[in-house]
Specification:
Elements (H helix, E strand, L loop, with lengths): L1 H16 L6 E7 L3 E4 L2 E10 L3 E4 L13 E4 L5 E9 L3 E5 L4 E7 L1 E10 L6 E11 L5 E10 L3 E5 L18 E4 L29 H19 L7 H11 L4 H30 L3 H7 L1 H19 L8 H11 L3 H15 L1 H14 L6 H23 L12 H28 L7 H19 L16 H17 L25 H8 L30 E2 L2 H11 L3 E6 L4 H11 L2 H9 L2 E6 L12 E2 L6 E2 L2 H13 L6 E6 L4 E2 L10 H18 L1
Parallel strand pairs: 2-12, 14-16, 15-16
Antiparallel strand pairs: 1-3, 1-13, 3-9, 4-8, 4-10, 5-10, 6-9, 7-8, 10-11, 15-19, 17-18, 19-20
Helix pairs in contact: 2-9, 2-10, 3-4, 3-10, 4-8, 4-10, 5-6, 6-9, 6-11, 7-8, 11-12, 12-13, 17-19
């Protein structure tokens, strides 16, 4: 009987130790079974997700933390991608740990990708990478799945322009089903992966309806704001009066005003097309992953902001403006068009920064977003000219021009300076520069919006401002709003999440002065009875990676193992990831406990092995995995491979207490569990077992 119980407990322990999770299965299909060469079809990716698990979608910010789903298509002359991958109705949720919204699927997830068939027997293959997490115990596993569409029958060459077939659901039944292979290479840069559908063709997940509507609202608002700048507002009555005086009757004036308005919209639409064509189809990926465009956009916003503040004027060459103005005098439809062109050029010193800002905000899309942004902006800009031509009596109700116009312009300058920091922040996070960590970013915003409030009260005068004898009610209300916003930002200096601004601020992980974390770290009755250990040498990769709560430790297994042997300390291995939400929860809620923190500082040598760190290793350290036969070329892929080959597990977080002399676990490794007593018990068991072996 004892032998039976022993064998049973052994099998149970082995089962709990060996956990290769496969929570996602895939089905692949096409929108039609037969296609003509030159036509466009849809590829359908259908993920069957195990109960109790969720898989992250492809349409949220890469800066947030969780790993975004990406589909990498191998380049082949038999097809071309049309647009980006589109998730179908994912759920949305705010995450307290990373301070932002992410999208995800439960039970089932569907993605679609349009492709144009260029040759018979198209070869469409690629790789899916992503992450799935449990809803119960919080485990997360990386996903890596190779896909192939080999059931596309090309029956003929289309004789007309490519057409887009309707989506048919039935081909799903004939799809090839494969089980998702977990990612052991994990060669993913989580700070840039959101837009990274790479290797070698890069596409970006198409903008969601929400982001497109955000752009439309911002562009329309920008057009309305442009109307009340010093360069534009005085032109409204002048232009409308010109149409009325040069027309035989009111209907002709309205017709000319409509042509004038449509001309403005057309000019800006062309500008959007030129902008998107200049950037090229890979612009969204470059913007998301490369420092250069983000730094350039920051400089653009900075220059525009200084221009609005009155440091200098951004002007179109006078000779060019004069030529366009001369063409406007020729009359007829062409004259009206060139008159619209002239107004666009003449007002550029005020509208240029707003137009440039809208284009930059639309640059994460391809042709559609820049064009929609410009058409929306131009519509808001042009509508008043048409309306006042229809109802000229409204001109009498317009406020008079004056110093308030420059107040609008200067206020926009402050806002431009604040918004430009977002692009510098993206580059800073991707390349670990640490120039603009969260508290520095917030501090700059506090200063900017405090100065804006002081300016609105008339305490600061810019170069083109009129003296302020008294503060109007409208300026007072705007000043109150600016000061209120600055005060709202202030707790963020000390670690407050500031959820309303999560999309604009750097992640909480970049915050150095985290007061809540410090309180958790140093509060409690349990104090350290021993001096915190000194490391044997400088940890590798410490300039990029870090441990929470001031812990000392390593980020390289071999280096940590050597030091643990030297110090005769058990090794605490933390298999973690930049995009692991549950890892951050464990660190914030369990590691921060005084008892746990004291034990990690004094009784163990901690090594954090990031499974998604993209830093490449030296060529001499590259090896081919015995598990999947793939070369492991970076830190993350090697750490992930170590976890799965040595401990038969691929979920994070995953904690191993290791005897450095035998490289064997001192206790059964554990994963996500926010119970502090359970974690303390686990650490104690490893500590006692190690002492017994001495």
């Amino acid at each position: 009987m004892r032998i039976y119980l022993f064998l049973l407990s052994f099998l149970f322990a082995f089962h709990s130790f060996a956990q290769i999770e496969t929570p996602v299965k895939w089905e692949y299909a096409t929108s039609v079974k037969e296609v003509k060469q030159g036509e466009t079809i849809e590829l359908i990716f259908k993920a069957q997700i195990q109960d109790g698990w969720h898989m992250f979608s492809s349409d949220f910010s890469p800066d947030l933390g969780p790993i975004v789903a990406t589909f990498a298509f191998d380049k082949h002359p038999s097809y071309s991608l049309v647009g980006g991958i589109k998730p179908l109705k994912p759920k949305k949720k705010f995450d307290d740990i990373f301070g932002g919204d992410y999208t995800y699927f439960e039970n089932q997830g569907v993605f679609k990708q349009k492709v144009k068939i260029l040759q018979p027997n198209p070869k469409i293959v690629g790789t899916f990478k992503g992450q799935a997490c449990t809803n119960n115990d919080g485990k997360c596993v990386p996903l890596n799945e190779d896909f192939e569409f080999n059931n596309i029958k090309v029956i003929a060459t289309a004789s007309t322009l490519p057409t887009e077939p309707s989506v048919v659901a039935t081909p799903i039944d004939t799809a090839t089903t494969v089980e998702a292979e977990t990612d052991t290479s994990k060669n993913i840069n989580t700070t840039a992966i959101a837009a990274a559908i790479t290797t070698p063709i890069e596409t970006k997940a198409a903008a969601t309806e929400g982001s497109l509507w955000d752009l439309i609202l911002l562009a329309f608002g920008g057009g309305l704001i442009a109307l009340v700048t010093p360069c534009v507002f005085p032109m409204i009555p002048m232009t409308v009066t010109f149409f009325l005086k040069s027309s035989k009757n009111k209907s002709e004036a309205i017709r000319k005003a409509l042509i004038y308005g449509f001309s403005i919209v057309f000019i800006y639409a062309i500008l959007g097309l030129v902008f998107s064509a200049t950037l090229g189809p890979d612009a969204p990926n470059i913007i998301a992953t490369h420092w250069l465009p983000n730094v350039l956009f920051f400089i653009v916003f900075f220059v525009f902001g200084l221009s609005f503040l009155g440091a200098f004027e951004i002007m179109i060459p006078t000779s060019f403006v004069n030529k366009i103005d001369a063409k406007a005098d020729q009359g007829g439809l062409a004259g009206i068009f060139f008159m619209a062109f002239a107004i666009v050029l003449v007002t550029f010193s005020c509208t240029g920064p707003i137009v440039g800002s809208v284009l930059v905000l639309a640059s994460d899309g391809k042709i559609i977003k820049p064009v929609i942004g410009m058409v929306t902006y131009a519509s808001a800009f042009a509508i008043p000219f048409t309306l006042f031509a229809m109802f000229p009596s409204w001109l009498n109700k317009l406020p008079k021009s004056g110093g308030w116009l420059n107040v609008v312009k200067v206020s926009l300058g402050f806002i431009e300076l604040a918004l430009g920091l977002k692009f510098l922040s993206i580059a800073d996070q991707v390349y670990h520069w640490h120039l603009l960590d969260r508290e520095i970013y917030i501090a700059i915003w506090i200063v900017i919006f405090t100065l804006l409030g002081v300016y609105l009260l008339g305490k600061i005068r810019m170069p083109h401002d009129s003296p302020v004898e008294k503060t109007s009610v409208s300026r007072l209300i705007l000043a109150i709003a600016s000061f209120t916003f600055a005060i709202y930002l202030f707790p963020g200096m000390f670690g407050a999440p500031l959820k309303a601004l999560s999309g604009y601020l750097p992640p909480l992980s970049s915050h150095d002065f985290d007061v809540p974390g410090l309180i958790r770290q140093y509060s409690g009755s349990v104090k350290s009875n021993t001096k915190e250990m000194t490391l044997c040498d400088e940890p590798k990769y410490a300039e990029k990676l870090h441990l929470p709560h001031g812990l000392n430790g390593y980020f390289d297994y071999k280096q940590a193992l050597a030091c643990a042997k030297k110090l005769n300390k058990p090794l605490f291995i933390d298999f973690t990831g930049h995009g692991c939400v549950n890892c951050r929860e464990m660190e914030a809620n369990v590691w921060a406990d005084p008892v746990v923190l004291n034990m990690l500082k004094n009784d163990f040598l901690v090594v954090a092995l990031y499974v998604d760190e993209p830093t490449k290793v030296a060529d001499a350290d590259v090896y081919t995995s015995t598990y999947d036969g793939k070369p492991k070329k970076n830190i993350g892929s090697q750490n992930a491979d170590r976890q799965i080959t040595k401990f038969n597990n691929n979920a994070q977080p995953y904690y191993v207490l290791l005897d450095p002399n035998t490289e064997q676990p001192l206790a059964t490794p554990i994963g996500y569990d926010k119970s502090v007593p359970n974690f303390v018990k686990y650490l104690e068991s490893g500590k006692v077992k190690f002492k017994e072996k001495k």
